[in-house]
Write a structure and sequence with these properties.
Number of strands: 6
CATH superfamily: Class I glutamine amidotransferase (GATase) domain
Structural class: alpha+beta
Distance between the termini: 19 Å
Order of helices and strands: HEEEEEHEH
Oligomer: single chain
CATH class: Alpha Beta
Number of domains: 1
Shape: flat
Length: about 90
């Protein structure tokens, strides 16, 4: 779905009579500078607001500057750093 289509789409849920549409833009970078180390978006930094918005009935579109699936920082997917906010995201990714 394009951003224009998302913007024109009718709301599927209303929160206090208001249509909640949120565009979340994540990084497209998968390398940390010139170091050659893998990078990406931090899972908890995405998952925490995502589920707050979703639970509030918002329609959410996730995008990246280059398009396609944003890269996940592999360190944020480590089981030792998982929180209650990231566990649902891990099951759906």
């Amino acid at each position: 779905m394009t951003l224009d289509e998302f913007d024109r789409a009718p709301c599927s849920h209303l929160n206090e009579g208001k249509c909640l549409k949120i565009l979340m833009v994540l990084t497209s970078h998968d390398q940390l500078g010139n170091a050659g180390k893998k990078s990406g978006f931090w899972l908890e930094g995405f998952a925490t607001p995502y589920y707050v918005f979703k639970d509030a009935g918002a329609q959410i579109m996730v995008a990246s500057p280059r398009g396609g699936q944003p890269p996940l920082d592999p360190k944020s997917d480590d089981p030792s750093v998982q929180t209650d906010a990231t566990l649902p995201a891990c099951r759906t990714m």
